[in-house]
Every structure is written in C-alpha cells, then in structure tokens.
Amino acid sequence: MSPYNDREVQAAHHEATRKLVTQRNLLVVEREASNRGGKCEDCGGIHDYRLIWHHVDPDTKRQEIGRGIRNWSVEVLEEELLKCILICDSCHRLRHSTMKGVRAGFQVPLL
Ligand SMILES: [Zn+2]
After folding, report:
1. Cα of 94 vs its chain's centroid, Å
2. For residues 7 and 69, what is the distance between their CA atoms, to the nearest angstrom?
3. CA angle (36 as vertex; 31, 41 as ends), nearest 5
4. Ligand 1 centroid to residue 89 C-alpha, Å
5. For the chain, what percent of residues have pLDDT higher than 90?
6. Of 51, 66, 72, 99, which residue is 20 to 30 A from 29 by alpha carbon distance?
7. What is the mean pLDDT of the chain?
8. What residues have CB less than 8 Å from 108, skipping those under 6 apart?
9. Beta bridge partners of 54
10. Alpha carbon of 59 to ligand 1 centroid (Å)
11. What's the predicted TM-score (pTM) here?
12. Mean pLDDT confidence for 28-42
C-alpha cells in the first residue's frame, strides 16, 4: 500500500510540474533578454542587478511575467514578453511615476 494518499500524490505531482514549468520558462525569458541585448531598452545601461519586464500598455497585461512563468505555456509567455520592454529599475520607476502622472492628469516632464 502506498504511504501517500491521493491528495498528497496529486499535490507532489503538481509541485514537481510547477517547478519544471518554471525552469523551462526561465530559459525562455533568458533567451528573450539575450536576444534584446541584455540591457535596458530605455537608457541602454547594462546593470548587474536584474532587469524588469515592463508592460508598455497595462490594459493588455495578463499578469506580471515573474508570476506567469510559474504556469504559462511557452506560447503564452512569448506572447506576453512581446508586450513588454526590458528596462532597469531606475527607468522602471520613472515610467511608473510618469504613468501615474498621466492617469492623474498631470503634466510630467520627460527627462
Ligand atoms: Zn534604464
């Protein structure tokens, strides 16, 4: 008799699958980042810390890339990456502060 009940086996299988999907999807993301030159698409900077996938149009955003990689298919992931630009933390913050300004109706000077 198995030491596991069905629910435990199912949970273990689900967890193992999620890890494999994440590992595969990380390779897809790394390949795409490499194809784009591995640098910030806004300032051109090559940074030691990780770059951020920023959705240009939040209305078409399915989910953050960092969350989606845990369960998306390669096709969905690639489709989502095409909606994004790869930028550094500084440029990401600048874009979000500008987006908030636009939403609030303020004129935000472009630097
Ligand atoms: Zn940048």
Report:
1. 18
2. 25
3. 135
4. 7
5. 69
6. 99
7. 86
8. 97, 98, 101, 102
9. 85
10. 23
11. 0.77
12. 93
